[in-house]
Amino acid sequence: MRRLLWIGTAACWAAVPLSAQEAFLTLPLDCEPGLTCYIEDYVDGDPGPGYRDYACGLKTRDGHRGTDFALITQQQFEAGVDVLAAAAGIVEATRDGVPDLPYSPEMADALEGRECGNAVRIRHDNGYQTLYCHLRQRSVTVRRGDTVARGSVLGQVGMSGESNYPHVHISVLGPDGHQDPFFPGQAGTCGEPAENLWLTPLPYTKTGMFTAGFSDRVPAFADVKSGTARLQEGSSDAPMVLYSHFYYAQDGDVLNLRVEGPDGEIFENTDRLETPKISQFRAYGKKSPAGGWPAGVYRGRATLKREGKVLAVRFTEITIR
Hints:
Distance between the termini: 30 Å
Structural class: mainly beta
Mean pLDDT: 91
CATH superfamily of the largest domain: Glucose Permease (Domain IIA)
Low-confidence stretches: 1-6, 8-20
Largest sheet: 8 strands, antiparallel
Number of domains: 2
CATH topology of the largest domain: Glucose Permease (Domain IIA)
CATH architecture of the largest domain: Distorted Sandwich
Strand content: 35-45%
Shape: globular
CATH class of the largest domain: Mainly Beta
Number of helices: 2
Radius of gyration: 20 Å
Order of helices and strands: EEHEEEEEEEEEHEEEEEEE
């Protein structure tokens, strides 16, 4: 999500002292980090045009004002994963009815004012509010004025609004604006935080993935980095190649590239990384079968793991006409 729109009317802050360092949050979705979910993006701590996460790493986007907890598989999204209240409070605003569709620039006008998608905003008694974005269409289970306990179900993980993968975006706000729950009260800085707002510590790794995409050949690294390697439509008689561009991988990390088509699995390849560079890519592909690839949508997934725990996932699609 590139921008975060506040749903409902303007917030009315209660006259309660705000303790920026007092932990009060739990996971905003029903999952186990590293096994069934992972953190895709953190709050952008760079006040300028660049970006950096709270640990001075790359796991954010310019202007990103929340934390993105992502699902690992499309099957999880289809089965339904609950979004949970990260702390007890009172529901201030909700929105439902926005479709779960992969975002494209052509959708910007239709989503104006609804970039957050289906959402819930909760006021907490310590002066904070939390906002949960991109919930699944018609899944929101609470209404304005409801009192919720920590862990109450608010809806399900979706991809409504400005989203192109299943995740929940949680923003934390106080009287002074957006807060990074991993580095509260430290806007414009990064480093090793003394305290954060999570009741259970969430481990950080600087390893991540920039992108994954389809091509009809093993692309040049320059084309991967510029984005020109990516194909959204392909030819039925051309090779099908899936690539992944990642950063700060370590010896022994495992990259899995998998493609499924209209008739099932096309290929799956697992590569154990050795002496990786700071930034690099891997690609794997398959020649077209006799008669060409069947028409339809082909879905690729790149997964980066360390010791069995998921570090990053990227989804991508290509259409064969």
